[in-house]
Design brief:
Helix 5 runs antiparallel to helix 6 and helix 20 runs parallel beside helix 23. The longest helix is centred in the last third of the chain and has 20 residues. This protein has 371 residues and is mainly alpha-helical. It starts with 7 loop residues before the first helix and ends with a helix. It is elongated and about 80 Å long. Belongs to the importin alpha family. One of its GO terms (cellular component) is nucleus. This is Importin subunit alpha-1.
Length: 371
């Protein structure tokens, strides 16, 4: 939540306008439900967006941004009161960077919350403004724009497509290489959301050379960036074999295995998904590639984690590797490698696991390959 801009004369002017309609600014920092908003407040502040006094406008933008950011009901109410077009018009009217930052932040709040998401008509109205703002040179403007896009892409494929159609993806991908972490973080989230869409939508991201940034992202000093990057790759390796090959060709698999071996647990989980998705959707050559990249040891080492779902995913990956190995008559060699990684003892122990899926998978691997 933004702090109230420190313009005392402006605050007095807005307060005077507000008092004339029985409205005060002060409650808006704590509004949490639609019924908490004083009657007439939102329409009043929407009208103030057209004021001749820019500082008055700025206070109204701040108030509306705080209201819109307090949940889907509040957000949708500000939209019904007509906030979008006058807010967008301010982008061309605004000369000071502080004012533009305020407008961009409020626009991002109009994109927040997904239960339910913003009306599709509102999204379509806002996207051209975001396509303009993401090209701005100011870090805060770009950051809030990227957060807005991350909210909008955390949705169904038709909404992802609307973002793609706004010609924004190339710039989002470019920002993955930014030196500003405040821009990289939301840009990566938005790109990651886009590749949760259809294979075609994922390919559009790949065609923008997005993977060229992931050697740095997967080895970033911030573990959260590693996690988000691995999550993004996991959605790409869930795609077509040609898309999996793009990940392999960019030499990203060793970084994923390194995260599995030494990363923080949240990043490890995403890397596990990335590798197992590859084993599920890749061709035999691709699966043999990760075998030759020494994927077995980190897969086996993580079998001791307490998260039953991740153990299940690890076992799925191992089973897929063994099935691929059987097509190349490499089962005996792979079984020996698993034993050398101390994986056999771990898989045998998992036959006593309380989770039925883990129990069944471990039993299948033992009975089919390791006896």
């Amino acid at each position: 939540m933004h702090a109230l801009p420190a313009h005392s004369n402006t605050l007095c002017a807005v307060a005077n306008d507000a008092v004339s309609s029985g409205i005060m600014l002060s409650p808006f920092h704590s509004i949490s439900r639609l019924h908490s908003i004083p009657p007439g407040a939102v329409p009043h502040f929407v009208r103030l967006l057209s004021s001749e006094h820019l500082n008055v406008v700025d206070q109204a933008v701040w108030a509306l941004g705080n209201i819109a950011g307090n949940g889907s009901d509040c957000r949708d109410f500000t939209v019904r009161c007509g906030i979008i077009q006058p807010l967008i018009d301010l982008i061309s009217r605004t000369t000071g960077i502080a004012h533009l930052r305020n407008v961009t932040w409020t626009l991002s709040n109009l994109c927040r919350n997904k239960s339910p998401p913003p009306a599709f008509e509102a999204v379509q109205q806002i996207l051209p403004a975001l396509a303009h703002l993401i090209k701005h040179e100011d870090r805060e403007v770009v950051s809030d724009t990227c957060w807005a896009l991350s909210y909008l892409t955390d949705a169904s494929t038709d909404r992802i497509q609307a973002v793609i159609d706004s010609d924004i993806v190339t710039r989002l991908v470019q920002l993955l290489g930014s030196s500003e972490i405040s821009c990289v973080t939301p840009a990566l989230r938005a790109v990651g959301n886009i590749v949760t869409g259809s294979d075609h939508q994922t390919q559009l991201v790949l065609d923008c050379a997005a993977l060229s940034h992931f050697n740095n992202l997967l080895t970033h000093p911030r573990s959260n960036i590693q996690k988000e990057a691995a999550w993004t790759i996991s959605n790409i390796t869930a795609g077509q074999p040609s898309q999996i090959q793009s990940v392999i060709d960019m030499q990203l698999i060793p970084h994923l295995l390194q995260i599995m071996a030494r990363g923080e647990y949240k990043a490890q989980k995403e890397a596990v998904w990335a590798i197992t998705n590859l084993t599920a959707g890749g061709n035999v050559d691709q699966i043999i590639y990760i075998l030759e990249a020494n994927a077995l040891k980190p897969l086996c080492d993580l079998l001791v984690v307490k998260d039953a779902k991740i153990v299940q995913v690890l076992l799925d990956g191992l089973l897929n590797i063994l099935n691929a190995a059987s097509k190349r008559r490499l089962v005996d060699q792979v079984c020996l490698m698993i034993e050398e990684c101390e994986g056999l003892d771990k898989i045998e122990a998992l036959q006593q696991h309380s989770n039925q899926d883990v129990y069944k998978l471990s039993l299948t691997i033992i009975d089919k390959f390791l006896l």
